[in-house]
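2024-03-11 09:14:02 DEBUG pipeline.ingest accepted 1 chain
2024-03-11 09:14:02 DEBUG pipeline.ingest length=487
2024-03-11 09:14:03 DEBUG pipeline.predict start
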Amino acid sequence: MLIAILGVIVVTSFLVPGGGGAKEPAASPPGDTPYNVVVAVLDDLDDIDCADMDQFLPRSSRWLVDQGRCFEDATAASPVCCPARAMLATGQLPHNNGVRRQIDGHRLRAEDTVQADLSAAGVDTYGLGKFLNGLPSEEVQTGRFDTGFARTEFWDTTHYRNFKLIDRNGRRRSPGPNAHVTEVTGRYLRDYLSERAADDRPFYAYAGFFGPHNQWRGKDHRGSRLPVPTAANADRPVPPFRLHTEGDARDKLFPFRKLAGDSSQLKTLYEARVRATYDIDDQLAEMFEQMEGNGLIDNTAVIFVSDNGFALGENNWEGKAVPYPASVDVPMLMYLPPGLGERGIDQRPVDLLDVAPTIYDIVDVKPDHLLDGHSLLGRHERKARFLEFTNEASELVLKESGRAPVYVPSWAMLRVETRALIAFDLGQGEVRWEYYADPGMERNLMWDRVPRSDRPAPAVVAQMTADLERLRTCAGTTESGAANPCP
């Protein structure tokens, strides 16, 4: 067994302060009013330590951190936008929900989504903003593609300004000459919450913010890609940028040997990204203030996540799609109404896969499909994590992320504490193996120039390899009685 070789993580309490582990979720808040859920998804926000969260979310951390739960060790099992968002919707890994690549949005099955199950159970469901890359919003808004939501306001967002909203007939219209996509997303969300405050029917709202994502390149692949903050935050001071690149990276594949670009470019990008995050923070703070005023704050949980991380020089990389920490580690926060669960810092290994099971748990609805994740309100503690990425060379990826991700081979990874085994698929049956025991994954212990005394024991590698191969087809969880459960 995996844990027999790799060791058991002993956790006396995963919540600080408070201790004692997570409580089981309450069936309903005081007064038998059902719970509601809002999920705010940011695009490409890099991970933030819980202790530093108030520097990047200075307004909304009052609720998300001080009155919520901050997950210190959260990951995205497939660190690119479309597969990550499909995991949020289904609670399934890409090899189970079929959305492996950025252009696979059409493969999402509405019947396998949390929003479809909630809609069928009488919960009002609303999807807003950015949903799945490569899935034209006209298809969603006109009903040609079923997302599972009862109501949507999804749009194709590639820039912070000069974007178009889409009506039910597929017609495009401008939200106004000075409209900013973050402000429009926040306003639509608050309008929906105002509407729901006057109705006792429970609801689930998904708000996909575009920030702090880079702007997309045009057809000629030129133009500024920097995020564009609003005027209110355009010149706002930000925490200092700390560049951390990898020195001797000969133990890695070619794309990671040397960082493209320079520190000044990364610093400029970092500052624009933080200011774009401040814009989202403002919108969420206004939402929380609104909920305090209309009473929703007492029975509405809010989950804050990013679809993936974003490297700014770590492991000689800028962006996402890679198996290294800055790409796969994500911030995850959850505001909890009184009585729903304990607050504080949660140290357990969690993943985006766990968001859908948590939503089911909060609203007390049973899923109609097999889940690969676990409710964050329960007591499950992962002993390992499985992550996967499928390479693609498409025009969509070039516009969204540039050329670099095209050179990243498909990979799968098994991660246990600070140990990680990565299998890069180089094609024609050739596999490049990497093994790390350091948190930053900077020293590949399977490189042929590593002293034999520093290499992992052959039995450990053999067992991890076997477990990694098994998890490529895992489905379900131990709790569900699955034959080949995911961690």
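2024-03-11 09:14:41 DEBUG pipeline.report Confidence is low (pLDDT under 50) at residues 1-28.
2024-03-11 09:14:41 DEBUG pipeline.predict end
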